[in-house]
Protein 1
Amino acid sequence: MVTRRRRPRFEWIAALALLCWPTDRAHAGFVNGGFEAGTFEGWDRVGAAQVLSSAGSVPPPGGAYQAYLENFSFVPASALAEFLGVPLESLAALSAEPITEGTAVAQDVTAAAGDVIRFGWNFLTNEDPGDLFNDFAFVTVAPAPPGATGVLADTLTPGTAAAPGTEFLRQTGYRAFEFAVREDGVYRVGVGVANVRDLSGSSALLVDNFQIDTARAVPAPPGLTLLAVGAAGLAIGRLRQVGRDAAAGAGPRTPGRAPAGTEEMCPEKAATVNPVRVLLQVVESGEHGR
Ligand SMILES: [Ca+2]
């Protein structure tokens, strides 16, 4: 009597793991998007900006740090526009009155159609609500896709509250900005705060949690791809062995196992694709600006 030597089961486990490699969404894009390096590493900046742990009573919405931009900077609108990579007219068009100065930070990121750029922002001001000295916070994306550049908040924005412990009378509180990218490309994403008509009555902008939610497939690393090919070969070999066992009357295969390629192999994938959430945060020391 010939005794068949069974292959170890790890080959099935390897095949299962690789065939279930998740491929839908991931977080990527911004370097130091949450300012958790404690500096502006990865960012360009112009004007009066710093990384803070908390601004008075306002803690960062994510991690231990956030970026603080103040509009009292002596940086004119023309320099802001050049820094942000947008036409001066498009920046000036955001305000009914002349922009006298401002501060901005920006980062160049690669994004694809369908990606969503998002971050959190909080506008603080000492200006009374009004049209003449209507300081404002803004976002720019260059080259400018439609709908990507605009005012985040100004002195007329409703829903503001006191900002105890800060230098400012009012704050909007942290709110979310989202922009869906329509075309693949490299975009310069900037945010800033502008002083309008005068050089007093300062305002500020807090920002945090810059990220890109991407719809691109996340390929398995090359080494794992090779492993997948090998494991698939082992699995096919195993299937053939099981078939021969069945034909020879060696009994049914292990209950609960299904052939390769069926949804039973990846139950979680059959129900809903398990997302990969990879937060790329490069934490490096040092600080630089433009
Ligand atoms: Ca943070």
Note: The CA atoms of residues 96 and 131 lie 8 Å apart.
Protein 2
Amino acid sequence: MPSTPDAAAPGSAGPDRGRADACPGALRLHPADDGALARIRLPGGLLTSRQVTALADAAELLGDGAPEITSRGNVQLRGLRSDCGAELAERLRSVALLPSETHERVRNIVASPLAGLDGAGYADVQAWVRELDARLCRADWAPGLSGKFLFALDDGRGDVAALDADVTLIARPGGTALLRLGRSATARAVPAGQAVTAALDAARHFLAALRERGLAAWHLREVPDLLPPGGEELPDLPGTHPAPGVLPGGLSVGLRFGRADADRWRTLAAAAPDGVRLTPWRGAVLPGAAPGLLPELARAGFLTRPGTAWDRATACTGLPGCARSLADVRTDAVLALGRAEDAGLPVHWSGCERRCGHPAGRWVDVLATGQGYRVTPVGTPAPPVEVTTDEMAEAVAEARRTT
Ligand code: SF4
């Protein structure tokens, strides 16, 4: 499977677990510089067309009008009025996007978005998503998890298994699954029918062991020896994730920086009568959507073909939405991507050293410094380079070609 090297980029600030977990939710709005921010958990990234429309309406009526996909396939609404919490909650409740008020922030579940769709012979993990979400929401211990604790349910192709989750299930042929804890190099084999129970047990044991030892941690990777890892080697999996275009079982599109205005989300809903699966790579898979709809989605502004410079290009909010930022990173990134011809390594622009939403694995870190940018190919031996904003496009293109 793809390696999951330390997701923290060079120079990242270390975690401070002494402070409360302030991760935003659908009910706990975060006061950002561009208004309040709500994060709505979507296990497996699954949305019905009606739910897509409801999110577009909520963003338009209560916020800045542009829902955005997060690095976990959830949705954020930004620029919300500070007094809109009750109305937002009611809108979410009316379309079943708020099944538990006590557990809403811990429903962090990513799943292989192509599971059961592309005829590649991998397991269909959608049933795991529904079972895990339902049981998590009924578990009285679960609200003790951090709002950042992540479950990854991989259909066997290794896509979400590379996302640095706390608890990862990897389906295997023959009715078994591997349970991987944090960044452990080994895993434990479990019957597929008991995989969800094993994942929940791991999360519960994590909380119990922290309590017993008087430790504070949000992630299993912070306390790697806390739980026994299992004795099976991790398999070498392809790790491919959906590229924009036509799939055997539908369509796949990308959203620039994961963001689209409400009308574009409505266009997506109309093209996807069977619902959408949002991906942790800021895209959407549309099961059953007709290939003939792709040109219309391209005209609406979605990314519909693979291999462009926008492939796996992301950026944090930056200025003006985040006062910590040293630059308007999205504007700078758009200019740089417009001058690039092809893709290469994933790339992420950050306005400060927190590097919100950066990818895992090998990627190009483009960090605002106040004088320009520092460009670092993370997970490779290539050294960082300091460049001006004008020089940044060329430096990024070269770093993305790093092998
Ligand atoms: S990385 Fe820094 S500048 Fe960017 S959104 Fe996060 S805190 Fe703000």
Note: Helices lie at 49-62, 85-94, 126-138, 195-213, 262-271, 294-299, 329-339, 389-400.
